[in-house]
Amino acid sequence: MKKVLLVLTSADDMSGHPTGYTLSEAADPWKVFRDAGHAVDFASITGGTPPIDPNSERDEITELYENDATVQAGLRNTAKIEFVEADQYDAIYLVGGHGTMVDFRGNPHLQRLVREVFETDGVVSAVCHGPSGLLDVELTNGLRIVEGRKVSAFTDSEEAAIGLSDAVPFLLSSELEAQGAELVAAREDFEEAVSVDGNLVTGQNPASAAGVAKEVVKILTTLVRAEKAEQAEAAEELRAEKDAEKAPDEDSSGA
User: Fold this and answer.
1) Its pTM surpasses 0.85
2) Beta-carbon contacts of residue 32 (< 8 Å; ≥ 6 apart)
3) Most buried in the list 70, 81, 94, 122, measured by CB within 10 Å?
4) What is the four-CA torsion angle of 152, 158, 159, 160, rounded to 10 degrees?
5) Buried b vs exposed e over 108-130: b needs ≥16 C-beta within 10 Å?
6) Measuring CA to CA, which residue among 200, 213, 201, 85 is closest to residue 139?
7) Residue 229: which residues within 8 A CB-CB, separation 6 or more?
8) Pairing mode, if any, of strands 150-151 and 182-183?
9) Which residues pair with 78 in a beta bridge?
């Protein structure tokens, strides 16, 4: 079992538009991770209960999420991102929603968490507007985390289609490209698109949330198998050492 942290916005307003995190973008990955046997924790920018975007659509999965006692207990008092330690998690998932456009970018604590998880071979993932938390994240080698990497995120055309191009503080996909990302988008707006580039996994829109989580699970499964193989190899080496220690004693007793 691995531990995954879902990071949520704390912003409930964007240029006069009520906002928050998109419900399905938390519920869909939560179910994928839960079904795969991984533990899921929640954190937000300022802690406490994160706001749900009032325009969020609901379905059977969001109903499960909203009625799960463990989930609701975690959401009532999410950890403040400032106090989250990267070494406690194998993967982080930056949940989207327009609120992230307000408080994800430029947050030094979120940047630190993203950098540390990424550089210790954990999985960094994000969906829709969640990749705003990847902007300006500089690695210890001096490169930005998205530089030269395939990234999917809410597109400028999708922003225009929902009429919020003038309300957002910046156009996410344009900013990602400006920082060196290789933008990967679906052929049509609002269709699923998921990009995997090493241990960075991103998705374009709400339709991509579960797909991002599934790719994260694949990477975590590979890590689990590698750890088990290492443990088996170490156990075999230990047995060989014990056998080697016993051999001289057996020879001398036989003489």
Assistant:
1) yes
2) 210, 213, 214, 217
3) 94
4) 150
5) eebbebbbbbbeeebbbbbbbbb
6) 200
7) none
8) parallel
9) 48
Closest CA to 213 of 12, 19, 21, 25: 25
Amino acid (one-letter) located at 195: S
Per-residue confidence (pLDDT) for residue 24, from 0 to 100 = 98
Tell me the C-alpha to C-alpha distance, in Å, between residue 98 and each of 161, 193, 236: 14, 19, 52
pLDDT digits (tens, 9 = 90+) for 71-80: 999 999 999 9
The residues facing 175 across adjacent strands are none
DSSP string, 167-227: TSSS-HHHHHHHTT-EE---SSTTS--EEEETTEEEESSGGGHHHHHHHHHHHHHHHHHHH
31, amino acid identity: K
Q: In this model, does residue 82 exceed pLDDT 60?
A: yes
